[in-house]
Design a protein that fits this description.
The protein is of the alpha/beta class. The protein has two domains: 2-97 and 225-275, Rossmann fold, CATH 3.40.50; 99-222, Rossmann fold (3-Layer(aba) Sandwich). The chain contains eleven helices and ten strands. It has helices at residues 12-21, 43-59, 70-88, 98-106, 132-137, 139-147, 161-166, 171-186, 207-213, 223-237, 256-267, and strands at residues 2-6, 27-31, 64-67, 93-95, 125-130, 152-157, 195-198, 219-221, 249-252, 274-275. α3 links the parallel β3 (64-67) and β4. It binds D-glutamic acid.
């Protein structure tokens, strides 16, 4: 089994892509809906909640867990990978989703940490839409600038968007919020962005609204697809971590019926969730 984790509904955009792309594997989803959104929480809280949720997926039998959440990856990913994973879950792997996104935006492999030709002359503008926690972490800017120092990364925190999606808000409300954030970002750039990173896995749920609000020339990095590509590459080298085929499973820490109702309306398919408590093994908050 491969675990897929997000604070709430957003990771379902990644889960949907993975389930379609890898029918020979079993995926188990955990949405920490009770604690969503993560985007306005502090670092220590995000580390603890992410570790507890990923630990729960390891306890279910996953050898590999994907943090399908930019906020969790940006704020907690490295700390959990370096300090928590091996002592608590030896031999297991925890993957984030920022590396494959940066690879696509910079057209440079993750292991290359410096500008190479032709990317060192790349002066694209990249628009980043993300949660406040992801934007304040500065991870996207840092990693993009290592590889493409002339690229201008312009970030726009979209604080209202995750709460609006989690509560199943009507389309007109979502459309207004997306237009507001895109307008705010475009007012900060001198030229139209070549790329837009929807740097929160909730945002593909309103990708059409971003498409309509962004200039026609701006390409949108499709995060669920590029994570599936990255997983395909990873499993070609670590196939032993993937396990066998099986039905997709969905767990939530939230109110099961409410989560099912909103998820089904956002994804356009009926998704059955089971309740789970994320308790083991505990991660220290500080
Ligand atoms: N889907 C999460 C992300 O990719 C959302 C974060 C939140 O809960 O605010 O950042």
């Amino acid at each position: 089994m491969i675990g897929v984790f997000d604070s709430g509904h957003g990771g379902l955009t990644v889960m949907r892509e993975l389930v379609a792309r890898f029918p020979q594997r079993q995926f188990v989803y955990l949405g920490d809906h009770r604690n969503a959104p993560y985007g306005d929480k502090n670092g220590a809280e995000i580390v603890k909640l992410t570790g507890d949720a990923c630990g729960t997926l390891f306890a279910m039998g996953c050898k590999l867990v994907i943090m399908a959440c930019n906020t969790a990856t940006a704020v907690a990913g490295r700390k959990l990978q370096q300090e928590w994973l091996e002592p608590n879950w030896p031999g297991r792997k925890l993957l984030g989703i920022i590396a494959p996104t940066v690879e696509t935006a910079t057209q440079t492999p993750w292991h290359v940490k410096e500008p190479v030709f032709p990317q060192k002359y790349n002066n694209d503008t990249i628009a980043l839409f993300a949660t406040s926690a992801t934007v304040s972490s500065g991870v996207y800017e840092t990693e993009i600038h290592k590889r493409c120092p002339r690229v201008q990364v312009v970030a726009q925190p979209c604080s209202k968007l995750v709460p609006l999606l989690e509560s199943g808000s009507p389309r007109e409300v979502l459309e207004q919020a997306v237009q507001e954030y895109v307008g705010a970002l475009l007012s900060k750039v001198e030229k139209q962005p070549e790329w837009a990173i929807l740097g929160c896995t909730h945002y593909p749920l309103v990708a059409d609204l971003f498409r309509a609000a962004l200039p026609a020339k701006t390409r949108i990095a499709n995060q669920p697809k590029l994570i599936a590509n990255a997983l395909e590459d990873y499993l070609s080298r670590h196939g032993d971590l993937a396990g066998q085929a099986g039905p997709a499973l969905y767990y939530t820490t939230g109110r099961v019926q409410e989560v099912r109702r909103v998820a089904s309306s956002l994804l356009g398919e009926d998704i059955f969730f089971e309740l789970v408590e994320t308790t083991t093994p505990p991660v220290k908050a500080a």
